[in-house]
């Protein structure tokens, strides 16, 4: 639901948007199209993904349905020739490029040890190199525009070590996009090209979040980002440049007084999950917390919460659950009930209990005993715990996040 009215300021302007076949990129494209803008959909998705809806062609149809003109281009932004061809095709059809939106991005929330170099290269080639390349090749045309903008979907440069410790490879790649803003905003100032960054205050219901969880209750819709982008792209690029903006701040300044309609679940609008790279004020319940001081489990822990929990889990394991989950989990529990536990939902009829699993774990999860109990009680979602730093994951992130569905099943049967 868009809460920022269209003004027509982007009518006839040409936007070159990477990764615009779905999600935030498409939402920005549609918002501009309602002004009567020309939109180039530069993305790889020419055929439908089995799990993710939308292609460059279906996006083009939607853009034209709301009043814009579209040019779908199959582009891998890692390939210089493909990017240049898309730009050449854009000039042939629309004569110029006024606005570049660097939205395409790759994500892998893995620590240093578990980040393979193929995934490392993918993130850096798409996020940092791709953003640089698209901006560089569009520059000659942006210089010819009297309303030239580059907008990167990237975070403020926050050097808090916490954000590097969780996923240093992804953080570096994403900050590479932000460093493009920092440098290019000054470099391109003489050409009156505004270069800015936009980042969501909260997590947004996109495919990236869907990789972690199917539960969007703590997210906002893409509309808040597209509304904020629209406001920024309508500003005078001569004076509006070098900003690292947050979507919530932009739409509020534009006159939106009630942000609740942006929430995916309006009833949960006051309990949204903050996005990566944004520090939380001290005392906020969403502040990432360090685990409790590690103490050796004493005799009282033998009959503690975790023991009771695993006893309950053992009674609810079924062949159907094993078949659906197909994963082995190891839990390194810290704090008052320190110990190692396992849950095998892959082999035989399944198994769980104290100690390491007999089979190699697909995912090893480390967290404080209190948070662990909350997670299995349904009070703390694995995706939320991970993004808040309350849960460390080594191994297969996708399988680790299967815990969310599995816990719902266990809770229903318990």
In brief:
The protein is an alpha/beta fold. It has 15 helices and 12 strands. Helix 1 (23-33) crosses helix 8 and helix 3 packs parallel to helix 4.
Structure description:
The protein is of the alpha/beta class and 414 residues long. The chain is built from 15 helices and twelve strands. It has helices spanning 23-33, 56-65, 80-94, 117-142, 161-166, 168-187, 207-212, 223-233, 247-253, 305-314, 319-325, 369-376, 382-387, 397-400, 403-413; strands spanning 14-18, 38-43, 69-74, 99-102, 148-152, 193-199, 244-246, 327-334, 339-345, 351-354, 363-368, 391-395. Residues 285-303 have low confidence and may be disordered.
Distance between the termini: 39 Å
The number of helical segments is 15
- Proportion of residues in helical segments: 25-40%
Which sequence of SSEs, written as H and E, runs from N to C? Answer: EHEHEHEHEHHEHHEHHHEEEEHHEHH
- The average pLDDT value, as a whole number, equals 88
How many whole angstroms does the radius of gyration measure? 23 Å
Could you give the order of strands across the largest sheet? 3-2-1-4-5-6-7
What is the global morphology?
A: elongated
Offer a few descriptive terms.
alpha/beta, 15 helices, 16% strand, 5-stranded mixed sheet, 7-stranded parallel sheet, 414 residues
Protein topology:
Layout lengths: L13 E5 L4 H11 L4 E6 L12 H10 L3 E6 L5 H15 L4 E4 L14 H26 L5 E5 L8 H6 L1 H20 L5 E7 L7 H6 L10 H11 L10 E3 H7 L51 H10 L4 H7 L1 E8 L4 E7 L5 E4 L8 E6 H8 L5 H6 L3 E5 L1 H4 L2 H11 L1
Helix pairs in contact: 1-2, 1-8, 3-4, 4-6, 8-9
């Amino acid at each position: 639901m868009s809460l920022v009215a269209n003004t027509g300021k982007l009518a006839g302007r040409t936007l070159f948007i990477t990764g615009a076949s779905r999600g935030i990129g498409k939402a920005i494209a549609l918002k501009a199209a309602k002004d009567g803008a020309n939109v180039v959909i530069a993305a790889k998705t020419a055929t439908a993904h089995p799990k993710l809806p939308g292609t460059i062609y279906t996006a083009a149809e939607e853009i034209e349905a709301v009043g814009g003109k579209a040019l779908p281009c199959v582009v891998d932004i890692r390939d210089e020739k493909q990017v240049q061809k898309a730009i050449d095709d854009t000039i042939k059809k629309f004569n110029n490029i006024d606005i570049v939106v660097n939205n395409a991005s790759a994500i892998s929330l893995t620590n240093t040890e578990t980040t393979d170099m193929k995934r490392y290269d993918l993130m850096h080639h798409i996020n940092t190199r791709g953003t640089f390349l698209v901006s560089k090749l569009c520059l000659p045309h942006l210089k010819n525009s009297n309303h030239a903008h580059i907008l990167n979907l990237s975070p403020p440069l926050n050097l808090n070590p916490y954000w590097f410790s969780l996923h240093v490879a992804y953080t570096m790649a994403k900050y590479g996009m932000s460093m493009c803003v920092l440098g290019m905003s000054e470099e391109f100032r003489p050409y009156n090209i505004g270069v800015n960054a936009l980042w969501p205050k909260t997590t947004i219901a996109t495919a990236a979040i869907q990789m972690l969880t199917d539960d969007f209750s703590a997210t906002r819709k893409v509309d808040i980002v597209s509304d904020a982008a629209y406001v920024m792209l309508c500003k005078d690029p001569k004076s509006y440049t070098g900003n690292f903006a947050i979507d919530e701040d932009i739409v509020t300044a534009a006159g939106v007084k009630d942000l609740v309609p942006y929430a995916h679940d309006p009833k949960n609008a006051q309990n949204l999950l903050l996005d990566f790279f944004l520090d939380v004020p001290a005392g906020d319940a969403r502040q990432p917390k360090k685990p409790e001081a590690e103490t050796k489990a004493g005799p009282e822990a033998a009959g503690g919460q975790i023991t009771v929990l695993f006893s309950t889990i053992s009674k609810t394991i079924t062949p159907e659950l094993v078949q659906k989950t197909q994963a082995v989990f190891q839990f390194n529990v810290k704090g008052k009930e320190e110990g190692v536990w396992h849950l095998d939902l892959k082999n035989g009829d399944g198994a769980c209990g104290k100690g390491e699993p007999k089979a190699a774990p697909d995912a090893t999860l480390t967290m404080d005993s209190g948070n662990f109990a909350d997670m299995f009680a349904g009070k703390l979602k694995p995706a939320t715990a991970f993004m808040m730093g309350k849960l460390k994951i080594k191994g297969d992130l996708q399988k680790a996040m299967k815990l969310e569905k599995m816990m719902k099943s266990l809770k229903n049967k318990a």
